[in-house]
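Working notes for the structural subgroup meeting. M.R. asked for a predicted model of this chain before we commit to crystallization trials. I am recording the input and output together here so anyone reviewing the notebook later can reproduce the run.

Input as submitted:
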Amino acid sequence: QICLSLVKLLFYLAHSPLGSIALLDFQPRQFVMVDGNLKVTDMDDASTEELSCKEDNDCTLDFPTKSFPLKCSVAGKCEGINEKKNLFNAYRYFFTYLLPHSAPPALRPLLSNILNATGDLRYGINETLRAFEKVLHLYKSGLYLQKRPLLLKDYISLKGFRTVEGEDYKCWPSYSHLGCLLSIHSAEEAAAICNSQLQCQSFIVTQHRTWTGRPLASFQSSWTDLIPDTNAVVYIKRSASSGERL
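Returned structure, recorded in token form:
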């Protein structure tokens, strides 16, 4: 969410009515999330000036660990230098820390491609935004899910119930530090996640949703202490419930 919002912001800056705008003091502290959107807190160090040049050798974009040769346009300006400066800063301050760690396995190669392409400046802001929107579409639609055996049949569902909230086993990347709370596309995906975790014996799907509209599911190591909740469904492994009274 943070990276996509940042890319949308940089897309606007690259195509603003004032021309391409560079953020000269590009640091994470210069941004804040407002209603799920990343915004710049200080525009004092923004500039629409692009480096003047006479030849391509005048257009080197330097960073502490990398340099990029750019083209000198017929107008005597280094082509796209503001856009590329913003994009590489987004890569080194945001993408490298946020992109590799929390996506479903099937989407990680696409995010790795974005990471590599922006780190080498092979993508401009237009290509970067399209790549992010493709990943978002796959994520929201569930098209990233690979065909696999149907596992939900191995669970008993109890509508209108959930378990008592409390600390349980942890997982990554959980929305809660007290347990394993993940976003899912469907109960079928939740069953696959539960089957992949040794501790998991049940999971609860609620009506709480993430910014993409995906429901949240809580994965738990037991299924006892059920309480009524009209907005939840608890799924219990048949193997865990065998011999027990529901």
